[in-house]
């Protein structure tokens, strides 16, 4: 089969666009495009590629959907399917059936052998643009997707009208909505299109996103990008609210999204580009209209996947394709109009019921089996209305004779073969002593290989009242992903125990009212003239809820960084081994290795022969089933790891962020291990993996902290100027800010203030304060180290360049004079004539003004990053010139001081703010040397250089996206980015010197210590700190722009004050020596 992409021509009333719209067709024959468009009759699905993606990425989903429609629905599964929770189904409002947890269940099971309609896949060609880096590109993509949706719906109407002229084909229903499927940023574009003011009402009712960011952009550096995300998310919150509010574009109409269902599919911890917290729908879409699910916990998938592989992973593509086909209503041939039915279809087909089985999610208030136990005897529970977990009557075993029933007297029941026997377990006897829970793991298929019943009392005669009150719970069994099939020499002669493929767990509430339990195995014919090998095909056990539970403290977990630790499981241990990790594996990934120590062969023939490792391993593989691990996190859901022998446990959670739910601060790991065998579990924390995950999760937080640290550094420099002390260097100011107890304790109080405020005003609890404070301080320390390293590197580079210039100027002065003498006189005359022109004369007389105008023009008319690059070059030039002047002065005094200062000696002549006394401050007429004045100028310019360098680097991704569209995009930069960058340019030019530092805030602590620019830097640093905590570093541009506007005002006041003579004596002056 070959893919064909049929272009859809634009409508006559729309202008030509660089984007395109295509219809996907799967086949090997050449087709007539026009005829194919006239035959459109399926359900329209529009695929939206992500950042730098291609429209051809639709092929995997479209081709598999075509195969799924032709092959029909998947085989019937006898395992329990996912059910809606009380919050998702809104039981009290909708009166949804509590037993099935599904509205419209009968429609979904009436598919038969074919689906009711096929899917027509469309795809938009967005020219491979980087929409994750620029807000304007994202908005343009949204505009085109809205046009594409209208074009698709109009095309169906045109096709139907054209067919009706020939053969009166009026029975086909014209689609009224389009299903949107978006990958990466395409998923956010799909959501933005839903709340777009130009979209027709009801044109989109279902949105499926694959690894798409929703709460915040992956690269939250550009202000316009963050603002666009905030605006779209604000519209979604208003759309689902009950009160009527205006739309997100300021319109007076009410935007209702009650008919829209959104499903967000995440890649898990393997997706390094879009974290699970970003892709979550929490706070945006209510649980009655949205579903967030990770691929490791998805039915028939069970795999974490990378950002791109989520598009072509066969397990995921097959499951999503069949789920979309199940949305089609039999009557209309289009998706269900009821959003509850659509959400129930997604939950049933995608989500595993494992979280509800173990009580990790909300449970029904009353067990339906408990209700069935007390039903009147005259009512048969074999009817589907009262036994949702019963097997179908059409399933018949070849031999259902129960003459050789077995009566189990131990807590653990083991089934060795498919012998057709029924095993009786006395719940009252075996469930005593606190063992009121039951668990069963098996590799037999429910209904076809094994059946489980609950009996209020023992009965055997057909049609008796006891039998009529028997409840079957076979289909309550939940599917587990089976590992590789065991090796077989001949049919039935496997040399390894098969991994479990299903688990059944019954709580004390579900067992209440019943006396007996029966586990029945289907009969199996003899293979190869002998019975099948003795191998445990199913293992069940009565257990205590707290039995086998181990809580690992944070100290115990962190100690494994230095040395691994072991946990021993002896034989006859609980089948469910519950590990509660007090520190989430999202912060500290845990390496776990399970080895079999023994497997109940002490009395075997090898007991006296001391079997070697090979024989011991072979027997244990035949005796014990492979362990299975279930990892639960409240944010990311459940992940299942079959054949769990050596794995790294890591969840994609963020437990130390101030917007994280409290439950995610710990991880739960349940290991299903054979109770007949003894195991040794070795655990250790992977430090490289922990560091990698720390940077991935908290990278945006560190970026915001870096700006805050530089603003705090400028605060110390401005404060030194206000106290008439030497201006310290960047490194000296950072070192002072880290001094304990103050000011480091004062800065570390910011997380406490934020945490307390969120606890008071938020309805939902946040993360643990200890982990929140610890991780925030760690991010602050990491950002400090990164800024210090950057400061050292730039300082060394500038010092080396200045030293080279001084060396060349001093050592090669004679050579330069000779070179100048050889230059013809006419060349000097031409240069002088050129420099005397108006343009060059203005540049020579006012170079700062000229550079500022160039930077402003680039900011508003080209790209803001280019204007900031000019500003950074200006700061570099200022630092370079100040340092050259300082070193030149030192070189001239070399005869008196026979050394050239090193970077630490020349640049770190600093004051100690702790030893400053107001009475010891120099008088206003104190004279400082020219060298010291240049050194102070370098220190302050160096701080501005680092601050604006990081701000420029934050806009580099947007610059890269702009460069891709160079020559095609004639629009101006987004006004928000340009205006904020303009404020930064004003700060760089008008605040390049500290002589504008005018007292603004009086401090009552001492005389003559009014705070000016230092107070402004402190407030901006606090705001940047909070922006980092909120994972929104783009907000620091607001603080920097505010500083720029304020410096202009201060410069005007300083000029007026200098004219009046008020500020001329506020600062020391220098004499050139």
Automatic annotation (TrEMBL):
The chain crosses the membrane at residues 694-715, 736-757, 769-802, 823-843, 849-874, 944-962, 974-991, 1012-1030, 1036-1053. The keyword Transport applies. Its EC number is 3.1.-.-. Residues 39-326 form the GPI inositol-deacylase PGAP1-like alpha/beta domain. Its main location: endoplasmic reticulum. GO terms for molecular function: hydrolase activity, acting on ester bonds. One of its GO terms (cellular component) is endoplasmic reticulum membrane. GO terms for biological process: protein transport. Keywords: Endoplasmic reticulum, Hydrolase, Membrane, Protein transport, Transmembrane, Transmembrane helix, Transport. It is found in: Endoplasmic reticulum membrane. Involved in inositol deacylation of GPI-anchored proteins which plays important roles in the quality control and ER-associated degradation of GPI-anchored proteins. Belongs to the GPI inositol-deacylase family. This is GPI inositol-deacylase. It comes from Adiantum capillus-veneris (Maidenhair fern).
């Amino acid at each position: 089969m070959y893919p064909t992409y049929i272009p859809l021509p634009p409508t006559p009333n729309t202008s030509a666009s660089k984007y395109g719209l295509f219809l996907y067709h799967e086949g090997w024959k050449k087709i007539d495009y026009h005829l194919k468009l006239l035959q459109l009759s399926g359900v329209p699905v529009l695929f939206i590629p992500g950042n730098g993606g291609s429209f051809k990425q639709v092929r995997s989903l479209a081709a598999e959907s075509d195969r799924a429609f032709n092959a029909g629905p998947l085989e019937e599964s006898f395992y329990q399917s996912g059910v809606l929770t009380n919050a998702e189904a809104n039981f009290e409002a909708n009166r949804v059936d509590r037993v099935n947890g599904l509205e419209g269940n009968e429609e979904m099971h009436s598919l038969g052998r074919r689906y009711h309609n096929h899917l027509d896949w469309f795809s938009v060609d967005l020219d491979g643009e980087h929409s994750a880096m620029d807000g304007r590109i994202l908005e343009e993509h949204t505009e085109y997707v809205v046009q594409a949706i209208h074009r698709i719906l109009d095309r169906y109407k045109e096709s139907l009208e054209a067919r009706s002229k020939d053969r009166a084909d009026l029975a086909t229903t014209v689609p009224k909505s389009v299903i949107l499927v978006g990958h990466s940023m395409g998923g956010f574009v799909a959501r933005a299109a839903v709340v777009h003011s130009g979209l027709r009402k009801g044109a989109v009712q279902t949105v499926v996103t694959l690894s798409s960011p929703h709460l915040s952009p992956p690269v939250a550096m550009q202000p316009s990008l963050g603002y666009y995300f905030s605006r779209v998310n604000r519209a979604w919150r208003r759309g689902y609210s009950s009160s009527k509010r205006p739309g997100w574009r300021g319109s007076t109409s009410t935007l209702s999204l009650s008919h829209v269902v959104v499903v967000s599919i995440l890649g898990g911890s393997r997706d390094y580009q879009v974290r699970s917290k970003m892709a979550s729908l929490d706070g945006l879409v209510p649980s009655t209209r949205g579903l967030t699910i990770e691929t490791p916990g998805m039915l028939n998938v069970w795999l974490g996947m990378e950002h791109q592989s989520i598009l072509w992973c066969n397990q995921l593509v097959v499951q999503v394709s069949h789920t979309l086909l199940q949305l089609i209503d039999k009557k209309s041939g289009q998706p269900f109009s009821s959003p509850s039915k659509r959400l129930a279809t997604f939950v049933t087909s995608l989500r595993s019921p494992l979280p509800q089985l173990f009580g990790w999610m909300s449970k029904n208030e009353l067990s339906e089996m408990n209700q069935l136990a007390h039903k009147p005897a005259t009512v048969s529970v074999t009817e589907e209305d009262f036994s949702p977990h019963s097997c179908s009557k059409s399933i018949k075993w070849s031999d259902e004779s129960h003459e050789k029933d077995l009566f189990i007297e131990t807590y653990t029941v083991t089934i060795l073969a498919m012998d057709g026997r029924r095993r009786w377990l006395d719940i009252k006897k075996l469930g005593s002593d606190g063992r009121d829970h039951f668990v069963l793991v098996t590799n037999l298929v429910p209904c076809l290989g094994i059946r489980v019943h609950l009996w209020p009392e023992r009965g055997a005669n057909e049609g008796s009242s006891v039998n009529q009150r028997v409840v079957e719970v076979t289909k309550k069994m939940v599917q587990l992903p089976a590992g590789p099939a065991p090796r077989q020499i001949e049919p039935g002669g496997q040399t390894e125990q098969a991994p479990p493929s299903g688990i059944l767990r019954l709580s004390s509430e579900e067992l209440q009212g019943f006396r007996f339990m029966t586990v029945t195995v289907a009969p199996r014919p003899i293979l190869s003239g002998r019975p099948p090998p003795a191998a445990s095909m199913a293992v069940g056990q009565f257990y205590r809820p707290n039995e086998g539970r181990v809580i690992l403290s944070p100290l115990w977990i962190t100690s494994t960084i230095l040395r691994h630790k072991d946990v021993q499981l002896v034989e006859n241990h609980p089948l469910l081994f519950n590990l509660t990790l007090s520190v989430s594996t999202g912060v500290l990934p845990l390496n776990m290795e399970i080895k079999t120590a023994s497997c109940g062969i002490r009395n075997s023939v090898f007991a006296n022969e001391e079997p070697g490792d090979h024989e011991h391993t072979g027997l244990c593989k035949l005796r014990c089933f492979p362990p299975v691990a279930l990892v639960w996190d409240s944010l990311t859901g459940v992940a299942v790891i079959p054949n769990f022998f050596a794995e790294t446990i890591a969840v994609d959670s963020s437990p130390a962020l101030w917007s994280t739910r409290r439950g995610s601060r710990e991880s739960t790991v349940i290991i299903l291990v054979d109770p007949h065998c003894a195991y040794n579990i070795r655990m250790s924390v992977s430090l490289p993996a922990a560091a990698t995950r720390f940077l991935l999760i908290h990278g945006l937080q560190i970026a915001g902290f870096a700006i805050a640290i530089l603003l705090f550094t400028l605060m110390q420099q401005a404060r030194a100027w206000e106290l008439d002390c030497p201006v310290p260097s960047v490194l000296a100011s950072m070192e002072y800010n880290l001094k304990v107890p103050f000011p480091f304790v004062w800065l570390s109080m910011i997380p406490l203030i934020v945490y307390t405020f969120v606890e008071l005003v938020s309805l939902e609890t946040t993360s643990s304060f200890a982990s929140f404070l610890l991780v925030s301080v760690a991010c602050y320390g990491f950002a400090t180290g990164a800024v210090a390293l950057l400061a050292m590197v730039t300082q060394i580079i500038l010092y080396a360049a200045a030293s080279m210039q001084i060396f060349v100027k001093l050592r090669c002065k004679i050579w330069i004079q000779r070179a100048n003498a050889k230059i013809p006189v006419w060349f000097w005359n031409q240069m002088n004539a050129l420099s005397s022109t108006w343009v060059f004369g203005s540049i020579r007389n006012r170079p700062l003004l000229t550079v500022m105008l160039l930077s402003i023009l680039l900011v508003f008319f080209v790209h803001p990053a280019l204007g900031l690059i000019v500003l950074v070059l200006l700061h570099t030039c200022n630092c370079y010139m100040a340092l050259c002047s300082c070193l030149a002065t030192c070189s001239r005094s070399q005869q008196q001081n026979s050394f050239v200062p090193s970077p630490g000696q020349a640049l770190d002549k600093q004051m100690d703010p702790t030893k400053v006394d107001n009475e010891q401050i120099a008088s206003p007429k104190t004279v400082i040397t020219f060298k010291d004045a240049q050194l102070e100028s370098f220190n302050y310019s160096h701080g501005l250089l680092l601050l604006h360098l990081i701000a420029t680097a934050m806009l580099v991704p947007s610059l890269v996206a702009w460069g891709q569209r160079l020559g095609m995009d004639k629009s101006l930069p987004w006004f928000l980015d340009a205006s904020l960058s303009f404020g930064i340019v004003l700060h760089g030019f008008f605040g390049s010197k500290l002589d504008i530092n005018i007292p603004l805030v009086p401090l009552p602590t001492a005389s003559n210590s009014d705070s000016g620019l230092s107070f402004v830097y402190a407030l901006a640093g606090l705001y940047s700190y909070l922006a980092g905590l909120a994972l929104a570093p783009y907000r620091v541009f607001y603080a920097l722009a505010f500083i720029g506007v304020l410096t202009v005002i201060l410069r005007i006041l300083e000029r007026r004050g200098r004219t009046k003579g008020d500020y001329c004596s506020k600062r020391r002056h220098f004499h050139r020596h």
